[in-house]
């Protein structure tokens, strides 16, 4: 980056004096308290590392919630974004741009033969799911089947298909006739879907619920059940898609065809972008005037998505995610630690299950030791490292894990 660009970002965001404590004090007085107190203030990132405002380096094993799959400040993504924004930054959806169309073609090719799928671009995962929700309404049916433990976002439509009562209840009434069935139970799904069902919405792996993998064949059964009743199969790949799990899309990898697919997190490597893909008849359900977005499909966001796809292909990162994921499972399992009961997930989306509800304490201890992970459930640690991480960097974390787990276990007992 030019020194001028660095200087202006410093000037606009304020001088980094007083370190984290000073920034957090200002945060608390100016930012809405929806997330609780931030655990760190970060000022810079490079590859798998981020540095906080006190100069401490951290290994980022969470990638900003499965987002920065190519690591921080990836040179190709950086060049693509700066090149696009210097050329043309925004025009609205009254107009088209080459970047938007190129990304539309790349994404639709991941789910269907040429010409069979269409995309609606958004800025986030929850908005991609809102677009999908509208597609389901355009079928003329209104019933949706979702699953226990599902997470699909925080806007009201996405919240209606999200299961956690803590997120839902304060905002009732939510739209739609939504029924929740146990995740991974194909018989329960078969019993719930009928001729009134507009769609079945599923995460191929439940990320926010603690990286829960359904039994083999579950997605294929869901496809059959939807076909029997003329319901749409809507796959939410916001967290699992775009290489995170070792393939572009989990359901495609399993040979399952979806009618609607939503994407976001890994798509722009941190530049906000989401997408709702629809295939076949579902691709024709929304017509002119039925949906819209000012920013969706913005050429800068689109070029970020194109750069991500190009780098993943060029560097063979799908296979790399699979290999590293297996390496991680082997390394954690080899610890033979009595508190670690298993490692689940796929590729580089992993949940380490613990024998006691100490995951939040382990995640805090890890942060103090310079590793970013999180605890989606009281007894599950989530790891979603960038696909560019090295085996040595992963091993460095695994080597410290026993001490972190022991420390948290003792602290909660004592
Ligand atoms: C994170 C997530 C969302 C919501 O995405 P946002 O960009 O936070 O709105 C939706 N679905 C799944 C499966 C997710 O993991």
Automatic annotation (TrEMBL):
Keywords: Amino-acid biosynthesis, Aminotransferase, Arginine biosynthesis, Cytoplasm, Pyridoxal phosphate, Transferase. N(2)-acetyl-L-ornithine binds at residues 154, 293. Its cofactor is pyridoxal 5'-phosphate. It comes from the Bacteria. It is found in: Cytoplasm. It is an enzyme of class 2 (transferase). Its EC number is 2.6.1.11. Pyridoxal 5'-phosphate binds at residues 125-126, 151, 236-239, 294. The modification N6-(pyridoxal phosphate)lysine is found at residue 265. Its main location: cytoplasm. InterPro entries: AcOrn/SuccOrn_fam, Aminotrans_3, Aminotrans_3_PPA_site, Class-III_PLP-dep_AT, PyrdxlP-dep_Trfase, PyrdxlP-dep_Trfase_major, PyrdxlP-dep_Trfase_small. It catalyses: N(2)-acetyl-L-ornithine + 2-oxoglutarate = N-acetyl-L-glutamate 5-semialdehyde + L-glutamate. Residues 1-20 are annotated as: Disordered. Pathway: Amino-acid biosynthesis; L-arginine biosynthesis; N(2)-acetyl-L-ornithine from L-glutamate: step 4/4. CDD domains: OAT_like. May also have succinyldiaminopimelate aminotransferase activity, thus carrying out the corresponding step in lysine biosynthesis. Belongs to the class-III pyridoxal-phosphate-dependent aminotransferase family. ArgD subfamily. Homodimer. HAMAP family: ArgD_aminotrans_3 (MF_01107). This is Acetylornithine aminotransferase. It comes from Microlunatus aurantiacus. The gene is argD.
């Amino acid at each position: 980056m030019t020194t001028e660009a660095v200087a202006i970002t410093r000037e606009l965001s304020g001088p980094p004096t007083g370190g984290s404590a000073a920034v957090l004090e200002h945060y608390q007085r100016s930012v809405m308290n929806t997330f609780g107190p931030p655990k760190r203030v970060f000022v810079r990132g490079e590859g798998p590392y981020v540095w906080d405002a006190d100069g401490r380096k951290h290994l980022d094993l969470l990638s900003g919630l499965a987002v920065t799959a190519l690591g921080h400040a990836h040179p190709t993504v950086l060049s693509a974004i700066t090149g696009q924004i210097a050329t043309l930054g925004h025009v609205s959806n009254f107009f088209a741009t080459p970047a938007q169309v190129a990304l539309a073609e790349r994404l639709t090719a991941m789910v269907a033969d040429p010409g069979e799928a269409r995309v609606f671009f958004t800025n986030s995962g929850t908005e991609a799911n809102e677009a999908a929700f509208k597609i389901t309404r355009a079928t003329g049916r209104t019933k949706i089947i979702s699953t226990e433990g599902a997470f699909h976002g925080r806007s009201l439509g996405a919240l209606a298909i999200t299961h956690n009562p803590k997120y839902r209840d304060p905002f009732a009434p939510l739209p739609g006739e939504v029924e929740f069935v146990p995740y991974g139970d194909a018989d329960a799904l078969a019993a719930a879907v009928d001729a009134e069902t507009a769609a079945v919405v599923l995460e191929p792996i439940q990320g926010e619920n603690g990286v829960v993998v359904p039994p083999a064949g579950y997605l294929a059964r869901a496809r059959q059940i939807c076909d029997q009743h003329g319901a749409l199969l809507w796959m939410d790949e916001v967290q699992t898609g775009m290489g995170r799990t070792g393939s572009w899309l989990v359901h495609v990898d399993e040979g399952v065809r979806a009618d609607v697919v939503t994407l976001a997190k890994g798509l722009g490597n941190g530049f906000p972008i989401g997408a709702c893909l629809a295939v076949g008849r579902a691709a024709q359900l929304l017509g002119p005037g039925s949906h819209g977005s000012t920013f969706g499909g913005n050429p800068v966001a689109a070029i970020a998505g194109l750069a991500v796809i190009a780098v993943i292909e060029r560097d063979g990162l799908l296979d790399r995610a699979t290999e590293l994921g297996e390496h991680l499972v082997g390394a954690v399992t080899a610890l033979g630690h009595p508190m670690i009961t298993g490692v689940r997930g796929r590729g580089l989306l992993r949940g380490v299950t613990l024998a006691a509800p100490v995951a939040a304490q382990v995640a805090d201890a890890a942060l103090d030791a310079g590793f970013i992970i999180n605890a989606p459930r009281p007894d599950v640690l989530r790891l979603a490292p960038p696909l560019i991480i090295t085996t040595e960097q992963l091993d460095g974390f695994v080597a410290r894990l026993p001490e972190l787990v022991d420390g948290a276990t003792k602290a909660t007992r004592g």
